[in-house]
Write a structure and sequence with these properties.
Helices cover 32% and strands 25% of the residues.
């Protein structure tokens, strides 16, 4: 059986995932995409071998078994709710929005939908999930990004933070993962995924630093659990098209899709 895949958002990540599907992932076929800039999307779709429909976000679920969300956070619910109501498999990349729209998980349980979050930039996600089967005492995460990688975050405007004035490593936020998801909806999806895998968004501590000395998005995670104590660090190469996200995000989504139909899958 071939599963139909739709992609909501056809920017750098959406195009990379579409290309992989078009080149061939066993058991999967790309059927539809949605894009804000439709003319640009039509030009990019013309480069694909298969026939792919260009649809509004809300219509994707009617044409797919799997709906991938890689759109701006502001339209997350517009895509996610129809997918969940129709019992689809939702793959969200704006993971922080699951904390904002917490009702969607319960609704998915009622409709038979599933929500699968890609590992993305979160090195060691399997280890965190495993530790959460026991007792975790503490989870902290420190994110460092070049200042331009934080541009546009609502938290900056609310607190009058001028990134152009940042000339040395500066901590601009400390709080919970839930608070971070509200203030930095395009920047802390890693922290949201970490909190969902571990001890929850209100017990996971997050620091965000604007650091002009780094060229990569850097995440350092510390976990203290009864089963293990570990520190994880990953330095992601930012996407040229969108410095707020890393190149590994699209690759992680492709890996998740391959795992859905693979005979052998490594990792829990």
């Amino acid at each position: 059986m071939t599963l139909r895949v739709a992609i909501g958002g056809f920017g750098a990540i959406g195009q990379e995932v579409a290309k992989a599907l078009d080149e061939g992932i066993p058991g999967l076929t790309l059927t539809a995409v949605s894009a804000r800039d439709q003319e640009k999307a039509r030009r990019n779709l013309a480069a694909l071998k298969g026939e792919v429909a260009l649809l509004p976000l809300a219509d994707l679920a009617a044409h797919a078994d799997i709906v991938i969300e890689c759109a701006p956070a502001a339209v997350f619910r517009e895509l996610a709710l129809p997918a969940i109501e129709q019992g689809r498999l939702l793959v969200p990349l704006s993971v922080g929005q699951l904390l904002v729209h917490a009702d969607l998980e319960a609704r998915a349980a009622a409709t038979g939908a599933r929500i699968l979050v890609p590992t993305g930039a979160l090195l060691g996600l399997d280890a965190v999930r495993a530790a959460a089967e026991g007792t975790i005492e503490r989870v902290t995460m420190v994110t460092r990004k070049p200042p331009r990688g934080l541009a546009g975050a609502p938290y900056l405007a609310q607190h009058g933070i001028d990134l152009d004035a940042v000339t040395a490593p500066t901590r601009i936020f400390k709080g919970t993962a839930r608070e971070g998801a509200k203030g930095f909806p395009a920047n802390v999806n890693v922290a949201a995924a970490l909190s969902l895998a571990g001890i929850g968004p209100d017990r996971t501590t997050l620091e965000i630093w604007a650091d002009p000395q780094v060229t990569r998005n850097t995440h350092t995670i510390e976990v203290e659990a009864e089963s293990a104590r570990f520190t994880l660090q990953i330095e992601n190469v930012p996407s040229e098209a969108n410095p707020r996200t890393g190149k590994i995000t699209a690759l992680s989504t492709i890996a998740l899709l391959r795992g859905l139909t693979a005979t052998l899958r490594v990792g829990s």
